[in-house]
Design a protein that fits this description.
The protein is built from 16 helices and no strands. It is mainly alpha-helical. The chain has three domains: 101 residues; 216 residues, no CATH class; 42 residues. Belongs to the multi antimicrobial extrusion (MATE) (TC 2.A.66.1) family.
Length: 430
C-alpha cells in the first residue's frame, strides 16, 4: 500500500520535472545579469498561489496526497510561464535575447565539464538521505520507521533551503571576486557567508530542540509517532548544523570550479563511510531508524570536515591565477558583475523550492489524518562586443587585467599575480 501510494505520488510529480528543467537555466540566465528582483517576485507569487492550490487539490478535489504532487507540477509551470514572459518581453533582457543559432552551442563541452560534476556532487548527497527511506522499509516496523524518517527528512530539507540559498549567493560572489582578480574579496565572502549560516543554524537547531515534542504533532496525532520523532530531534539538530555549513562550503566549491573534488568528498563520506555505518548500526546493532540517521550524521560530519579543511587551506591568489588560466574568450568579457544581488539569492532560493517542500508536508499530514490500517495505526507516509565593455570600464585595474588576458598563456599567471599585488597594495589589504 505504501509503495503503491508513493508510485502514484511520483508519477504526479513528473510534469514538474520538465518545468524545473526550464526554471533552472532561466534562473541562472537572469542571475548572471543581476536581475534578481523578477526571480524574487515570481517566486513569491508562485508560492502564494501554490499554498491555495495545494489545499484545494488535497482536501477539496478528492485527489488526496497525489493532489499535493499535482499542485507542485502546476505551480512550477506557472513559475515557468512568468519567467519566460519576462525574458521575452522585458526591455532588461533586450540585449541578451538572441536567436537560437549554431553559435549557441559553442562551449558546450566546457559547460558539461562543470555541470556534470556539479550534478553528481548534489545528487550523491541527496540520494544518501533518500536511501534512508528505502532501507527503512526493511526494518521490523517499517510503517513507523518510514513515517518518522520521512518527517525528519522533510523537516531538515525545509530548514536547509535557507543555508543552501546562502551557499548559492556565496557561489556567485566567490566566482565574481575571483574573476575580477580580488582574492581578499573572495575570502571575505566565505567568512561572511559562514558567519550568517552558522548563526542561523544554531538558532534553528536550538529552536527545534526546545520544540521537539511539537514537531511530530505538525505531521501526525499518533502518540507513538510523536514520541519517536521527539527522540530523533537531537540527531536532526546535528544534521541541521552540518547541512548549513556544507551548503556554504559546496557553494564555495562551485564558485572555485572544484565540483569534481566535492563530488569525490561526497562519495567517500556517504557511500564509503556513512551508509555502511548506518546499515551496521541499524541492522547489526538493532538501533533501527536511529541507527540509520546516526550513520548519515557520521557521513555528514566527515563531509563537512573535509570540505572545511579544503576551504581553509585555499591559496586565494593562486586560485585567481587558476581561474584566469581556464577562462574562455566569452568569460573574459564578463569579468565584472555588480555586487548587490547576493543578499536576495538565498530568499529567492527558498521561495522557488518552498512549493515542493510545502507539498511534501501536506502529503504527510494528509496520510497521517486520512489513511488507516486496522490494528496498525495510521500511516504517514550573446555576449556583447569587447568595445561595449571596454568603453564602459573606468577601473584601471580591470583594464590591466583584460589587457593581460590577451597576452600569451605562458605569461598569464605572472601578470595576474602582479595585478593582484597591485590591487592589494592599493586597497591596503593582503
Amino acid at each position: 500500500m505504501i509503495s503503491n501510494g508513493a508510485g502514484r505520488y511520483m508519477i504526479s510529480l513528473i510534469p514538474g520535472l520538465f518545468a524545473s528543467a526550464v526554471i533552472q537555466p532561466i534562473t541562472k540566465f537572469l542571475q548572471s545579469q543581476s536581475l534578481v528582483y523578477p526571480l524574487l517576485l515570481s517566486s513569491i507569487a508562485t508560492m502564494v498561489i501554490h499554498i491555495l492550490l495545494c489545499y484545494v487539490m488535497v482536501f477539496k478535489t478528492g485527489f488526496g496526497y497525489t493532489g499535493a504532487a499535482l499542485a507542485v507540477s502546476i505551480s512550477f509551470w506557472l513559475n515557468v510561464a512568468m519567467l519566460v514572459g519576462y525574458v521575452m518581453f522585458s526591455s532588461s533582457c533586450k540585449e541578451t535575447r538572441t536567436p537560437l543559432t549554431i553559435d549557441t552551442f559553442k562551449g558546450v563541452d566546457t559547460f558539461l565539464r562543470l555541470a556534470l560534476p556539479t550534478a553528481l556532487m548534489i545528487c550523491l548527497e541527496l540520494w544518501s538521505f533518500e536511501l534512508l527511506i528505502l532501507v527503512s522499509g526493511l526494518l521490523p516496523n517499517p510503517e513507523l520507521e518510514t513515517s518518522v524518517l520521512s518527517i525528519c527528512l522533510t523537516s531538515v530539507t525545509l530548514i536547509s533551503t535557507v543555508p543552501f540559498g546562502v551557499g548559492a549567493a556565496a557561489s556567485t560572489r566567490v566566482a565574481n571576486e575571483l574573476g575580477s582578480g580580488n582574492p581578499s574579496g573572495a575570502r571575505s565572502v566565505v567568512r561572511i557567508a559562514m558567519s550568517i549560516t552558522m548563526t542561523g543554524a544554531v538558532i534553528m537547531s536550538g529552536t527545534l530542540l526546545v520544540a521537539r515534542h511539537l514537531l511530530g504533532r505538525a505531521y501526525s496525532d499518533e502518540e507513538e509517532v510523536i514520541s519517536f520523532v521527539a527522540s530523533m530531534v537531537p540527531l536532526v539538530c546535528i544534521t541541521v548544523v552540518t547541512d548549513a555549513v556544507q551548503g556554504v562550503l559546496a557553494g564555495v566549491a562551485r564558485g572555485c570550479g572544484w565540483q569534481h573534488l566535492a563530488a569525490y568528498v561526497n562519495f567517500g563520506s556517504f557511500y564509503l563511510l556513512g551508509i555502511p555505518v548506518a546499515i551496521v548500526l541499524s541492522f547489526v546493532l538493532r538501533l533501527g531508524a536511529r541507527g540509520l540517521w546516526m550513520g548519515v550524521v557520521c557521513g555528514s560530519l566527515t563531509q563537512t570536515t573535509l570540505m572545511g579543511a579544503i576551504t581553509f587551506f585555499i591559496n586565494w591568489p593562486k586560485m585567481v591565477c587558476a581561474v584566469f588560466s581556464r577562462m574562455t574568450p566569452c568569460n573574459k568579457l564578463q569579468l565584472k558583475q555588480q555586487n548587490y544581488q547576493g543578499y536576495l539569492n538565498h530568499f529567492m532560493f527558498f521561495c522557488v523550492f518552498s512549493p515542493f517542500f510545502f507539498s511534501r508536508c501536506i502529503a504527510l499530514v494528509y496520510c497521517c489524518c486520512r489513511l488507516r490500517r486496522p490494528g496498525k495505526g495510521r500511516l504517514v507516509r550573446s555576449w556583447r562586443s569587447p568595445d561595449h565593455y571596454w568603453s564602459r570600464c573606468t577601473d584601471p585595474i580591470f583594464q590591466v587585467v583584460v589587457r593581460h588576458l590577451l597576452m600569451p598563456q605562458h605569461d598569464l599567471c605572472h601578470r595576474v599575480a602582479g595585478v593582484v599585488r597591485l590591487r592589494a597594495d592599493g586597497d591596503g589589504r593582503s
